[in-house]
Amino acid sequence: MDTPIYDFVKKYQEKGTVRLHMPGHKGSPFLGCEALDITEIKGADDLYHAQGIIHKSEENATHLFGARKTFYATGGSSQCIGAMVYLTMLHGKKGQPILAARNVHKAFLHACALLDLDVKWVYPQGEATLCSCPISPKQLEHILRSMEVLPFAFYITSPDYLGGMADIQGLSAVCRKFGIPLLVDNAHGAYLRFLPESLHPMDLGADLCCDSAHKTLPVLTGGAYLHVGTKALASFEEDGKNALALFGSTSPSYLILQSLDLCNRILAEGYGDKIHHCVKRIAQLAEGLRDMGYSLQHFEPLKLVLEGEKMGITGYELGEFLRENEIEPEFSDADHLVLMFTPETTEEDFEKIEKALPPMIAKAGNGPKTAISSRGERVMSIREAVFAKGCTVLAEQALGRICAASAVSCPPAIPIAVSGERITEEMIRLFLLYGIEEIQVVLES
């Protein structure tokens, strides 16, 4: 598969052209990558009005992902989330809310604040933690039937930070039944398309979805895709670039664009086989850990989630076992330790993990410490709270105050309190559990 963006930049570098244009480093190797870092010079195309090399590269990505259209983004899935919400809002009617599972990334709240949207939250029927919010098709259909005003879209995160995967096919069928688009934050699942049997939202019926290419594919941080489904409205494709431009910089990184471009070739040349091999090796590691007494949550193919709570140990403590052996996990909290793998994880890496984690004796836990049992009381709209005058207070002193900026640690970047909600004792407990000591609240008059 050709790589038009990378080839153009490489030729430009080799010519030794005098760079009387941005960026200011002029190609000097302060870090070593500057010679390949350019801007929209003649022939380099324009990301948000792509007609040349970027357009050709995006066409390659569209073919690889089997989408109606795949757009590049250099602002991560955060940029694409805003674009998805905006695109579907354009086709909604005045007064329609957006329906969303509660474990959204904070970028979703930012989009809703900027677009002044009303959100109706969906909570799981059973117990859930901050990072998970499993919603079944049956539950979604019941909710939609009970709503006086249908939403203009349904938004869900899958896979979630703990590897939970929604029934996208079933949810999509329900959404089509009610005539509303399904939006999927697939930030952790770009690779799902390249499994022996695709589990990617584009193949399971989603109308729009975003992938953080950099999370699971060999792409620089910030590289992402916005996919438009084959059965989605044609206007989603037509307006996609404008939507991304609304939430992105006018100076997209050409290093990231080259990375996305080169990734097309890598994916086309048998990367799926490498992913399949990696998945099998992860399964071997999981089996070995279970034999050592570890409790593992049902996980997506490239992720292992150790359930510390069920073993009488915290995810933080499990993480320290790894760090003592120069292994850095993706995420840990009081209940879980999350390990993310890709085909770039070497056999030596796997062996180091196996040696680093000691045998574990299962102990009775007292239930997940990160569980959410109550729903927030909305006092103001998200937009009103975000743009209201605010002040910073200690978390312990925030009881009863109205959350202004979404209170969240990153990772997992999932708000404990949504902007506009009244802060409860349970929220304060979670703030402190995640190391959030100060909260931005609406200034009292």
UniProtKB/TrEMBL annotation:
Family annotation (Gene3D superfamilies): Orn/Lys/Arg decarboxylase, C-terminal domain, Type I PLP-dependent aspartate aminotransferase-like (Major domain)
Pfam family, one: OKR_DC_1
UniProtKB keywords: Lyase, Pyridoxal phosphate
Source superkingdom: Bacteria
Enzyme Commission identifier(s): 4.1.1.19
Keyword NAD: no
Top-level class of the enzyme under EC nomenclature: lyase
Cofactor names: pyridoxal 5'-phosphate
MF-aspect GO terms: arginine decarboxylase activity
Annotated ranges, domain Orn/Lys/Arg decarboxylases family 1 pyridoxal-P attachment site: 3-289
Family matches, as InterPro entries: Orn/Lys/Arg_deCO2ase_major_dom, Orn_Lys_Arg_decarboxylase-I, Prn/Lys/Arg_de-COase_C_sf, PyrdxlP-dep_Trfase, PyrdxlP-dep_Trfase_major
Name of the featured protein: Arginine decarboxylase
Naturally occurring in which organism (per UniProt): Anaerotignum neopropionicum
